[in-house]
Amino acid sequence: MGQSSAFYNGFVGYAGFDLKQGVVELECANYCKPSGRATGNTYYEKLISMLDGKVDDIWVAEAEDVIAIGETGRLMDLNTNDALKEKYSARFVYCMPLDESYSDRPVPIGIDLSGTALVGEYSAYPNGAVLGVNAYTQRPDQVIVFLDYLFQ
To answer: Which of 36, 42, 57, 75 could be stapled to 70 by a disulfide with Cβ–Cβ 3.0 to 4.6 Å?
Structure first.
């Protein structure tokens, strides 16, 4: 799934990225289960650093793990992005924020990736997957390009 894989090359080609002008990185070696005991896990700490440091735009994992990160407020409330809401609202995955002052109702924090190559053809997520968008992303337009690639 990482650099030089068929998936990576397919996405770069689909998106029209010129790798001489910039970098596209797919981090495929961060194994953690935020829905379980994550404290003290260096992979979990790396994930939080990458999200809070505005490095990662998205995070893909099993639903319960994306929900666990979403509950902390680190994933975008997808209702705040009109393009994502318009295209993918039927696939939204919700969580209850831990901070009740943010919302006392479920918030959409992920997009169900059922039917995509990540769940099917590449079998990267045999138990299903959800994509969460970093609350601090500076590139929401690229998130849509990635989703469009997955759902083509």
So the answer is: 75
Q: Are 32 and 38 in contact (CB under 8 A)?
A: yes
The residue with greater pLDDT, 114 or 42, is 114
Strand 107-112 relative to strand 58-61: parallel, antiparallel, unpaired? unpaired
Residues 102/39, Cβ–Cβ less than 8 Å: no
The 3-state DSSP class for residue 115 equals coil
- What six digits make up the tokens of 24? 């596209």
Taking the C-alpha atoms of residue 107 and residue 78, their distance in angstroms, rounded to an integer, is 8
Q: Give dist(CA 70, CA 77) in Å, integer.
A: 9
Would you say residue 37 has pLDDT above 70? Answer: no
The answer to whether the CB of 91 falls within 8 A of the CB of 111 is yes
pLDDT digits (tens, 9 = 90+) for 107-142: 999 999 999 988 988 888 889 999 999 999 999 999
